[in-house]
Design goal:
The protein is α+β, with helices and mostly antiparallel strands. Helices cover about 50% and strands about 15% of the residues.
């Protein structure tokens, strides 16, 4: 689900923000896993004058991955891609060590990869949708926007006024101190 949403060049977020809209050279998303809580992260370095529109498009993609099944093409591209990428996790001593450390860190069995290929081959559109419904929560989005406040703040306020975003706007200076908001 995360790979289809934002994990590679052909992901929905990149194809939308880069290829369709031309707002950025690239945009990505994916899961950041932590033993105690994980997060889905998405974004890109976009042109200041399209910050608002970029946020709207990313939110649209978050809703879309929840609201409808992925396509056969997406699943047919990403499942084999995950399998073909597997050998790289064991290509060098350092890669093996890193893979082993990740298994231990996340409490996964050392035999995790014994069934990896079979599990990936068995992924279905329904399984991807279930993952999206369980883990993609557009209402819980927290944004970090870095840029020229004069250019982006008025447009961010428009998103709040239109209720496309909820919450408060916190403005920080270059030292990370709150200097304003909403």
């Amino acid at each position: 689900m995360a790979t289809i949403l934002g994990g590679g060049f052909s992901s929905r977020i990149n194809m939308n923000i880069r290829e369709d809209k031309g707002y950025a050279y690239g945009a990505r998303g994916g899961c950041r896993y932590n033993r105690y809580g994980s997060m889905l992260v998405a974004g890109g370095s976009v042109k200041s004058d399209v910050t608002k529109e970029s946020i709207q498009e990313i939110l649209k993609e978050l809703h879309a991955i929840r609201d409808a099944d992925v396509t056969d093409e997406e699943l047919g591209r990403e499942n084999p891609g995950a399998i073909l990428a597997l050998p790289a996790q064991f290509a060098t001593g350092r890669a093996v060590q890193s893979t082993d450390q990740n298994l231990l860190y996340h409490g996964l069995p050392l035999g995790y990869y014994d069934t990896f290929v079979r599990n990936v081959q068995g992924l279905t559109k329904a399984a991807v949708r279930k993952a999206a419904l369980g883990h993609v929560k557009p209402a819980d989005v927290r944004l970090l926007v870095v840029g020229d406040g004069r250019a982006v703040l008025p447009r961010l306020r428009e998103l709040l006024d239109a209720k496309e975003l909820v919450g408060e706007l916190v403005v920080l200076d270059a030292d990370g101190k709150a200097v304003g908001g909403r």
